[in-house]
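SAMPLE LOG
Freezer: B-3
Tube label: C17
Construct: single chain, 294 aa
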Amino acid sequence: SLMEYIISCVDEDTKVITVDRNIRNIRNIRNIKSYQCSFVDQTDFSEIAEKERPDIIFNMAGIVSSTDFGNLFSTNVKITQTILECIANHGINSRLIVAGSAAQYDLSSDRFNVTESESLSPSSLYGLSKVLQENVIKYYSDNYGITTISARIFNISGPGQRGDIVPAIFFKKIKTAIEKGEKKILVGRVNHSRDFTDIRDVANALWLLSISDLSGVEYVNISSGEPVQIYKLIDTCVELMDASIDIESLSEIDNRNNPVSISGNNKRLIELTGWKRMYSFKQSLMDQLNDYGL
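STRUCTURE (predicted):
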């Protein structure tokens, strides 16, 4: 998970605390203390925050694929508000980093080199929930002096990714075609582009933001700045799997809720942190493929 990769960026002498609805094993990491917390009752998290008084809090909790706005709000907005309320009530000198999204931007037409100053006009309920999350962090930053950072993360690739999103779904389609002896795969629209960053580079960016010299509220894109056409993505997946398969696009598949093309400008991130991309797109895909054991 993204949180595990963030933890791997932390010095081993730093105390790490995880808070989740379920206690999970964090691989290959020392000095971790884990708490189970539902976040439904603010009291649960409040007790943990008052006891531990952390310097930095990462809120990576979130729901992406849902049409239930109540569910999106309770997870993507309310948890953030709960954390900030606890920081304010107990006078804890913490800074909060939350996961924002490229879905906050206007995705009704092609958008390349999107900067943080561009207007927010989400076309999905998920994007709307992330905009509301930023309204919450700005309120607490303005009124309680809490340093808050919203990292507007574009598409992620690399090991540990869910199997129901791009590029994982293409790996699965190719694998199925190979097993069935088929010579082509059917996909949706492939002419649009997305901006992919390896999950390890995303984690490093989040960590660098957390220790940078910032105050108030900041909105920062995490992106590679290099749009990749979906056809090229699939073609690279086919190459990495050493398959002899053609790609057939079915334009009638309904993709109305997906952005046409988008890439982010990462100049602000680099200026604030000196961040550098360590994993190329092809390397990221190869590591993701190996992680799936395909």
